[in-house]
Amino acid sequence: QVRLVESGGGLVQPGGSLRLSCAASGFIFSSYPMSWYRQAPGKERELVASIGTVGGSTNYADSMKGRATISRDNAKNTVYLQMNSLNPEDTAMYFCNTRIYRTNYWGQGTQVTVSS
């Protein structure tokens, strides 16, 4: 079955960086676009970044442009999200996502907390 496992979250000071990872299994990873979403308490889940199958096509939320880089390693079935210049507004649970045959699959999430 499809499985997405996020890691790399944690507590970071404002201005700091984090690299999130999402290990995928149960499907042909290289055939599907991948995305990162986030959800802060009391807010709707929002798209952070997405990447095409071979990594050449990327898309970012306006709030993350210039501060985030999404990448993928198809040999390792892993997608990454490098985030820099983090601020408290980036505090949220971050989720890995893929969509296969009109079904969305999600990981359990990894918490990112930006605080001094």
Layout of helices and strands:
Elements: E1 3-7, E2 10-12, E3 18-25, E4 34-39, E5 46-51, E6 58-60, E7 68-73, E8 78-83, E9 92-100, E10 103-106, E11 110-114
What can be said about the biggest beta sheet? Answer: 7 strands, mixed
Supply Rg: 13 Å
Number of strands: 11
Strand content: over 45%
Order of helices and strands: EEEEEEEEEEE
- From the structure provided, what is the oligomeric state, counting identical versus distinct chains? single chain
Give the number of helices: 0
Q: State the helical fraction.
A: under 10%
Low-confidence stretches: none
Mean pLDDT: 96
Principal-axis shape equals globular
Class inferred from helices and paired strands? mainly beta
Summarize the structure in words:
Helices cover 0% and strands 53% of the residues. With 116 residues, the protein is mainly beta. β7 and β8 form a beta hairpin. The protein contains no helices and eleven strands. The strands form two sheets. Strands 2, 4, 5, 6, 9, 10 and 11 form a seven-stranded mixed β-sheet that branches. The chain has a four-stranded antiparallel β-sheet with strand order 1-3-8-7, with no helix packed on it.
